[in-house]
Amino acid sequence: QSKLSGDEVTPTKDRSESASSTPEHQAKLAPSTSTPVPPHEERSAPEGTSSPTPRPSDTSEHKPSSSRPHSIPSEGYMTATEVQKLLKQQELQFEEKLLRAELASGEKEKKLRQAMKDEQKEKNSLGENISELTKSRDALLKLVQQYKGMLAALVGEKEKEKQNQEERIKTLEQERNQALEDLANVEVAFSDVHRKYERTKQVVDTLKRNEETLRGAVSDYELKLQKQEQKFIEFQKHAEEKIQLANEEFETMRRANDQEMTKMAALLKKAEMKIMSLQDSNDRKTRENQELTQLCDDLINKVGTSH
């Protein structure tokens, strides 16, 4: 693209340089009777194409011709035929520029087409006012300058677009590198998850085997539990029978004990009454002994005093 843009800019420079060295310029400096020759633009062909072969009409511009119009233009101006040829050449060059610009940048297609339409209108106006165009070559030079500015702007835009594309490429490369790094991390994470899955699968298989073993053990324990429950029921019945017998024996012993206690209480009462009777008898005999002792002492005292 940069080469193409460079090719587009070069002809205008060569044309401006050739314009200063044309016979027309020399004719202005040194008056002559010869007809001025319009500036001839040299255009470099695009890469991959051959240089355009000069048309006979183009080469004949530098030769005097007897078929020129009867109206001889003023010195320093172009004839109508030369203007038509120049317009045709400018049209071909402009179409070639548009084609190159269209191939170089699809985004500027609409603007270039509009410019082509404007140029077509301008060419039609120039065709209708050919006498004015012959008197206003400076306007054509200004138009060429506008073309140069357009091409320079197009080149600048292409350079800017190229820089933007390079920045986008760098951004895409960074995103690609980041995506590759993320992909590597995802692959590592997937490998880790796969290893964990394999370990979990082994653990699940082990747990299933343990579950089957435990279910078998649970079945065995349930059978044993049923047997133990049956034994417990039998033992409970036997214990209840024993308890019933023990209760009956206890009740019998309690009644016998109550009877024995009643008997012992009666004997105790009888013994207490006997003890009370004996104690009363003992007290009475003690009083009687004391009275007898006192009586004996009195008698002894009386006998002693009499002697």
Task: Tell me about the largest β-sheet.
Answer: none
Strand percentage lies at under 5%
- Rg for CA atoms: 73 Å
- Topology as H/E string? HHHHHHH
**Broad structural category:** mainly alpha
How far apart the termini lie comes to 190 Å
Mean model confidence by pLDDT: 75
> Can you count the helices?
7
User: What's the overall geometry?
Assistant: rod-shaped
Question: What oligomeric state do these chains adopt?
Answer: single chain
Instruction: Work out the number of β strands.
Output: 0
- Helix percentage: over 70%
Unreliably modeled segments: 1-71
Q: Care to describe what's here?
A:
- The protein is an all-alpha fold.
- The chain has a domain at 2-135.
- The protein is 82% helix and 0% strand.
- It is built from seven helices and no strands.
